[in-house]
Amino acid sequence: MRAHPLATDAVLGFGALVSMVVGSFADPHGPHGPTFGTRTPDPFSLVLMLLGAAALVFRRRRPRTVLAVTCGLSLLELTTGEPRAPVVMCTVIALYTVAARTDRPTTWRIGLLTMAGLTGIAMLAGPLPWYAQENIGIFAWTGMAAAAGDAVRSRRAFVDAIRERAERAERTRDEEARRRVAEERLRIARDLHDVVAHHIALVNVQAGVAAHVMDKRPDQAKEALAHVRDASRSALNELRATVGLLRQSGDPEAPTEPAPGLAVLDELVDTFRHAGLPVEVILQLDGEPGALPAAVDLAAYRVIQEALTNVRKHAGSGARAEVSVVRVGPSVEVTVLDDGGAAAEVPEPGDAGGGHGLLGMRERTGALGGSCFAGPRFGGGYRVHAVLPWA
After folding, report:
1. What does DSSP assign to residue 250?
2. In the predicted structure, residue 72 carries a pLDDT above the cut 80
3. CB of 376 within 8 A of CB of 353?
4. Which 3 state secondary structure label does DSSP give 328?
5. What are phi and psi of 215, to 5 degrees?
6. What Cα–Cα distance (Å) separates residue 62 from each residue in 9, 57, 59, 348?
7. CA distance linking residue 297 with residue 295, whole number of Å
8. What does the DSSP 8-state code read for residue 31?
9. Residue 321: in which H helix or E strand, if any?
10. Whole-prediction pTM
């Protein structure tokens, strides 16, 4: 209905026309109440009903113009029609539209003017007595149309206000979270810079002194090396304290083994294979995997680890995965594909790529100047593609 308003109003106008034509054959003044088929409308009344229904097609484009046209057609019918046809039904629909698409003061002014005008003309200039129930019915129907349109407009405004408030609160919450994250990252980066800059500068100076006096004054060289050892120990302690702020209670202690990389990719893949996930690995690098820079090597390993974990958690039974690490010019492209398996979980619309693991992959690759994309594959399954700079 929202996509094709003109067609919707055309259907409404046709329905109103059918109702008016059918109602024009009913006589409300029968001896035992309204009777059907006891009167026939005039051809002029049929023309007025047809014109009124046609005007309703444009009720949303020109609501006030349509109301004026239908009021004019209704006045013609009220003053000339005998028997009277229900042309005023078009005015009732047009008045409802105006009330639903304008403000309350305008609705009061236009509604009272329409109610008083039509009812007054029907009572004073119509062929029926002023106290006839049809005249009172015109007043009642136009009043209900204005009230119903105003209620619908108020309801829509209320719903729009709630939706806008919810969207604004969501934006404010997201902006506040991003601001706090940025402030915390800036503070930690400032602390790390202070620690590293001070102690590494001291180590550099003392190491230079030791190298300069190593041959001539070994005692002074030993003293300089002792300063290097103390400065490096102090730097490690302060780095541990600063980075420890990022850890939460219950996190395991920092491992003592070297950071993993693509050199142990086979061991990582074997753990998933033993868990029942078939994984195929394609590794095309210049030289050994260890030739990669340490940060890039670790990022590639973590992307593969997180992507395979997501496949294991979210893909259906019988899913298969494929991992490829390929050097393309100055970049390393890491791709993890899966076929979805059977009865895989279907992500909600607009929710693809919203997990913390995928967010972590994007931040890790972005910190190195790379990029990461994750999303459903055509035909089923999921695809994670990360591009990392070689240098």
Report:
1. T
2. yes
3. no
4. strand
5. -80, -40
6. 12, 10, 6, 40
7. 5
8. B
9. strand 321-328
10. 0.46
